[in-house]
């Protein structure tokens, strides 16, 4: 009877071991599946890291180009400011017209006496200068109020 009891106990232990072995096998399969998922995720992370590095390089390049653009604009604004200062200085240095619109002294190209039918454009064309240059040489001159005999400056 002892042998039969020990045999029954052995049988019960064998069944328990088989059940546990089956659970261990299932767990081993789950572990293998998890390993495969981790490996796949590692590949995804590596790819994402490469893309992030490329994006960082592009952003750095854009930042550099943007800074270069700002530097160029700053330089150009400085040049424009210099040109404006020169124009302001030239304007204040231009001869002041008298009450009749005639300049105090002849311009660098001499002076001109207005004739009947003259307009700033006609005078400028005849002397090979632009109307704008003619008007700049004669501050305060009203183009619609030219008078015959009036003297104006001619730019070079």
Overview features:
single chain, 156 residues, mainly alpha, Membrane-bound Lytic Murein Transglycosylase D, Chain A, two-stranded antiparallel sheet, 3 helices
Helix and strand layout, with pairings?
Blueprint: H1 2-93, E1 111-113, H2 120-126, H3 131-136, E2 151-153
Antiparallel strand pairs: 1-2
The first-level CATH class of the domain at 96-153 is given as Alpha Beta
Number of helices: 3
Structural class: mainly alpha
Lateral arrangement of strands in the main beta sheet: 1-2
Q: How would a textbook summarize the main sheet?
A: 2 strands, antiparallel
Helix content: 55-70%
Q: Would you identify the CATH architecture of the domain at 96-153?
A: Roll
Measured between the Cα atoms of the first and last residue, the distance is: 138 Å
CATH superfamily of the domain at 96-153: LysM domain
CATH topology of the domain at 96-153: Membrane-bound Lytic Murein Transglycosylase D, Chain A
| Portion in beta strands | under 5%
What characteristic shape results from the CA principal axes? rod-shaped
User: How many β-strands, per DSSP?
Assistant: 2
Along the chain, the helix and strand elements come as HEHHE
Radius of gyration: 48 Å
> What is the residue-averaged pLDDT?
86
Which regions contain 5 or more consecutive residues with pLDDT less than 50? none
């Amino acid at each position: 009877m002892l042998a039969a009891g020990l045999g029954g106990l052995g049988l019960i232990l064998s069944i328990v071991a088989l059940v546990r072995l089956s659970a261990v096998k299932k767990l081993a399969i789950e572990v293998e599946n998890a390993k495969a998922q981790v490996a796949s995720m590692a590949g995804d992370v590596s790819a994402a890291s490469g893309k992030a590095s490329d994006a960082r390089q592009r952003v750095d390049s854009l930042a550099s180009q943007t800074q270069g653009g700002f530097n160029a604009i700053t330089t150009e604004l400085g040049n424009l400011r210099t040109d404006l200062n020169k124009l302001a200085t030239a304007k204040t240095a231009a001869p002041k017209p008298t009450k009749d619109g005639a300049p105090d002294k002849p311009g660098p190209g001499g002076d001109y006496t207005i004739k009947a039918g003259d307009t700033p454009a006609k005078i400028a064309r005849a002397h090979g200068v632009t109307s704008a240059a003619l008007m700049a040489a004669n501050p305060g001159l009203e183009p619609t109020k030219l008078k015959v005999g009036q003297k104006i400056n001619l730019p070079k």
